[in-house]
């Protein structure tokens, strides 16, 4: 079977890798450079700490379990030069800095523990042992040993390198324009195939409409600050308790919550913002100021640390906050893998595996029903 994946971000790359591992001949195309859009504007979060019990958490848990094995297999297949992704299973720390947010944080963690997440309530003193530069205004803290970090572009390009090594084809700079039986239409001519995966991220709704099967996927803007390189100053992925509420919110207005972490290169990444403003990619100074102000409240040492740059991007948002994974019953041969919003890095491994299982008739490792395209509010 021939498959074409439209979109060379981390979700498209994971689907392509899983399909090629299952024996399909895979072509990956993107209208821009590989892994240059949503994936390049992310932080590399591989989180279980920010998801309430339900289908997305189950997908995140499956992805977290599978990703280390997947990376080990790719390292053996590709060698060290092509498989370095800066994998850091460093754990996460969530803190409440006000008494009114302590109770909800601890209740949320208890619900997650009931769903199988390692969420360890720790004292404020223990939180500062884990993060010595953390504010002393800690009302409650939860340690998540399974939270991790990966360099998102390296992860995507490693997955794509495996596809290419197995005989697949990578076509950057090619735009998909539509679909008809047995072939994908592009601005470089048709590509024969039996299966097309819509992995266009925030632009998935646009491509789906071109194929005659519109879906509701909207862009949600996010911005990240990057400091100048420092010695290792933040040991975990640390965020405040408001982050979970911001992730789950469907509000279009600006929402910010603090996420702070160090990278192997020494920079500190500061997020996060969420805003539905279409595809407006202008950097808004008031958003940057809000991120900086909240980060300093969590880590006072950041006051006076220079910000080297800021970057932003669009995440694929669905109204029910769940990804869309699987076949589209309206158009034979059309499949979707999109709608992961800011969790795509952490959900990629399980998403690719699930899509390949469904495409090849193998038993799915997670329940695919919640992610079907024909659920209310998604199939337009």
From TrEMBL:
Signal peptide: none annotated. Keywords: Oxidoreductase. One of its GO terms (cellular component) is cytoplasm. The keyword Oxidoreductase applies. GO terms for molecular function: oxidoreductase activity. Residues 2-358 form the FAD dependent oxidoreductase domain. InterPro entries: FAD-dep_OxRdtase, FAD/NAD-bd_sf. This is Secreted oxidoreductase. The lineage of its organism: Bacteria, Bacillati, Actinomycetota, Actinomycetes, Pseudonocardiales.
